[in-house]
C-alpha cells in the first residue's frame, strides 16, 4: 500500500497523463495466463501499465520534468521483456523540450524576416526602375500603360510605408499607441488597398475591351483614378473610425477578440479580388473561342496583358488569403507557411514590375531606341 502511495505522488509531480486508477486498482486486475510485466513507474515518473511479455509499450512524453516543459504529442517507448521484466530504460529520444522547439521556430522566423526584408528591397528597386521607364517613355502612354503605371506607383507607396512600419514600430511605440503610429498604420492599409483596387482596374479594362467589346477610347483615365485611388480612401476612413472607438490600441495593428473592424477594409479587398477572378474567367473564355485565330497587334497585346494578370492576380490573392489560413500545430506546416508567405508577400512588387513593365514589348522597344 505504501508503494502505491509513493507512485501516486511521483505521478502528481511529473506526469499528468498517467492513470492513477491503474495504480490504485492494481490488485483488482485479473492475473494474466502468460508472462507479463507488472504496472510500474520509472524514474522520470511515467506510468507503464501491465503488459504482456514481448510487447513494446508507448506512453505520452511527460508534460514537465525538472521545470522544463515537453511536447506531449510525442511518445516514450519501453519494452516488456520475455522474462516478464521491464527494460532498464525507456526510450525518451522522441521527447523534445518545448524550449528547443521555440528556439527552432525563432530561428526560422528570423530567416523569414530576412527574406521579407530582401524581397521588399528587390521589389522596391524593380518598381522604381519600372516607374521611371513609364515616366520617361511618354510615347507609350496609352490608357492601358497608364493603368500599369498607377499600379506600380501604388506598390511603391505600399512598400515605402512597409519600410516605415518596420523602422518605426518598436514594442514601446506599440504600447504607447501615439497618433503618428496610428496614421502610419492607416497609410499602410490604404496603400495596401490601392494595390487591389488598381488590380481591379486592370481587370475592368481587359473585361471592357475583350468581353464587352467596347472601344477603349470611350474609357477615361479619371474613371480608373477613382477606382484605384479614391474608393479605398473612405473605406480606410471608416476602418479608422471603427478602430478609434472599438479597438484603439497597439497602433491599430492586430485585433481584439470579438472585434471585427479590420473587415471594414478587408471585405472590399476580398470582394474586388473575387470580381477580378470572374472577369478573368470571362476574358479567358472569350480569348479561347473568338480571338484564337486573330493575329492583330491589339489582340496580341490583350493576350499578353491577360497572361500577366493571370499570373499576378493569383499571386496577390493567394498571399492575402494566406492570412486567413491556420497552418495548424504541425511544425513543418508552420515553417512552410512562414517561408511561403514571406516570399510571396515581399516579392509582389517585383513580379508586377516584370510582367507589366520589363516584359512589356512597347517598353522594351522604346527603351532600346532611347
From TrEMBL:
InterPro entries: GPCR_2, GPCR_2-like_7TM, GPCR_2_CRF1_rcpt, GPCR_2_CRF_rcpt, GPCR_2_extracell_dom_sf, GPCR_2_extracellular_dom, GPCR_2_secretin-like, GPCR_2_secretin-like_CS
Start and end residues of each G-protein coupled receptors family 2 profile domain: 18-99, 112-360
PROSITE patterns: G_PROTEIN_RECEP_F2_1, G_PROTEIN_RECEP_F2_2, G_PROTEIN_RECEP_F2_3, G_PROTEIN_RECEP_F2_4
One MF annotation (Gene Ontology) recorded for this entry: G protein-coupled peptide receptor activity
Protein localization: Cell membrane
Coiled-coil zones: none
Keyword Secreted among UniProt keywords: no
UniProt keyword terms in alphabetical order: Cell membrane, Disulfide bond, G-protein coupled receptor, Glycoprotein, Membrane, Receptor, Signal, Transducer, Transmembrane, Transmembrane helix
Record membrane topology: Multi-pass membrane protein
Transmembrane segments: 109-135, 147-165, 196-215, 222-241, 263-284, 305-325, 337-359
Pfam families, A to Z: 7tm_2 (PF00002), HRM (PF02793)
Gene Ontology terms: cellular component: neuron projection; plasma membrane
CDD domains linked to this entry: 7tmB1_CRF-R1
Biological process, per Gene Ontology: adenylate cyclase-activating G protein-coupled receptor signaling pathway; cell surface receptor signaling pathway
Family according to the record: Belongs to the G-protein coupled receptor 2 family.
Name of the protein described by the UniProt record: Corticotropin-releasing factor receptor 1
Amino acid at each position: 500500500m505504501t508503494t502505491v502511495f509513493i507512485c501516486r505522488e511521483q505521478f502528481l509531480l511529473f506526469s499528468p497523463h498517467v492513470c492513477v486508477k491503474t495504480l490504485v486498482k492494481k490488485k483488482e486486475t485479473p492475473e494474466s495466463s502468460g508472462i507479463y510485466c507488472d504496472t510500474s513507474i520509472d524514474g522520470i515518473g511515467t506510468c507503464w501499465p501491465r503488459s504482456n511479455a514481448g510487447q513494446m509499450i508507448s506512453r505520452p512524453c511527460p508534460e514537465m520534468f525538472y521545470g522544463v516543459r515537453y511536447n506531449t504529442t510525442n511518445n516514450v517507448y519501453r519494452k516488456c521483456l520475455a522474462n516478464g521484466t521491464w527494460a532498464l530504460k525507456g526510450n525518451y529520444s522522441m521527447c523534445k523540450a518545448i524550449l528547443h522547439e521555440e528556439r527552432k521556430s525563432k530561428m526560422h522566423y528570423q530567416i523569414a524576416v530576412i527574406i521579407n526584408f530582401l524581397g521588399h528591397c528587390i521589389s522596391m528597386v524593380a518598381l522604381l526602375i519600372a516607374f521611371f521607364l513609364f515616366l520617361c517613355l511618354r510615347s507609350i502612354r496609352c490608357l492601358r500603360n497608364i493603368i500599369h503605371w498607377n499600379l506600380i506607383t501604388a506598390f511603391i507607396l505600399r512598400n515605402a510605408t512597409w519600410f516605415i512600419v518596420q523602422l518605426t514600430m518598436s514594442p514601446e511605440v506599440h504600447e504607447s499607441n501615439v497618433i503618428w503610429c496610428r496614421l502610419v498604420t492607416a497609410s499602410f492599409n490604404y496603400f495596401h488597398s490601392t494595390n487591389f483596387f488598381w488590380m481591379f482596374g486592370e481587370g475592368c479594362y481587359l473585361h471592357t475591351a475583350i468581353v464587352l467589346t467596347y472601344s477603349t477610347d470611350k474609357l477615361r483615365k479619371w474613371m480608373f483614378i477613382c477606382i484605384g485611388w479614391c474608393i479605398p480612401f473612405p473605406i480606410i476612413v471608416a476602418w479608422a473610425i471603427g478602430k478609434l472607438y472599438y479597438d484603439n490600441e497597439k497602433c491599430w495593428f492586430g485585433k481584439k477578440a470579438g472585434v471585427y473592424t479590420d473587415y471594414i477594409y478587408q471585405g472590399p479587398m476580398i470582394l474586388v479580388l473575387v470580381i477580378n477572378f470572374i472577369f478573368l474567367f470571362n476574358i479567358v473564355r472569350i480569348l479561347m473561342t473568338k480571338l484564337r485565330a486573330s493575329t492583330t497587334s491589339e489582340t496580341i497585346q490583350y493576350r499578353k496583358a491577360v497572361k500577366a494578370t493571370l499570373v499576378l492576380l493569383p499571386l496577390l490573392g493567394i498571399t492575402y488569403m494566406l492570412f486567413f489560413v491556420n497552418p495548424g500545430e504541425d511544425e513543418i506546416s508552420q515553417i512552410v507557411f512562414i517561408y511561403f508567405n514571406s516570399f510571396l508577400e515581399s516579392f509582389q512588387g517585383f513580379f508586377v514590375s516584370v510582367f507589366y513593365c520589363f516584359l512589356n514589348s512597347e517598353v522594351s522597344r522604346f527603351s532600346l531606341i532611347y
